[in-house]
Amino acid sequence: TYREVLPYIQHHFLDIIREFRTRFVPRFPEDIVGIIAQLCNPDPAKRGDPKNLSSRFNRYSLERYVSLFNRLAARAEYSFGRRASTGK
Fold first, then answer.
1. In three state form, how does the secondary structure of the chain look?
2. CA distance from start to end of the chain
């Protein structure tokens, strides 16, 4: 059953997250790795925003992620603007 193989899937999922972090975090913010880990967790009980897991809100709601992506986009725009203005 899925419950029986879940520990193995979870183990390999964490390996993939570690590999992603090692390969791509220099190019992507750590927040992206967290989002991937939260939204793709193979354990449905752990999937979603941790703040929503124990609350009355829908754990699969993407509202918090939309806000996070907006902040990441603003940060990227600011960073890009600073590099463009300094010529780096």
1. CHHHHHHHHHHHHHHHHHHHHHHHCCCCCHHHHHHHHHHHCCCCCCCCCHHHHCCCCCCCCCHHHHHHHHHHHHHHHHHHHHHHHHCC
2. 54
Q: What is the pLDDT along the chain (88 residues), one digit of tens a residue?
A: 999 999 999 999 999 999 888 887 667 778 888 888 999 999 988 888 877 766 677 777 788 889 888 988 888 888 777 655 665 5
Two tokens, residue 86 = 């300094």
Q: Is 48 exposed, middle or buried (0-12, 13-18, 19+ CB in 10 A)?
A: buried
Cα distance between residue 54 and residue 31, in whole Å: 21
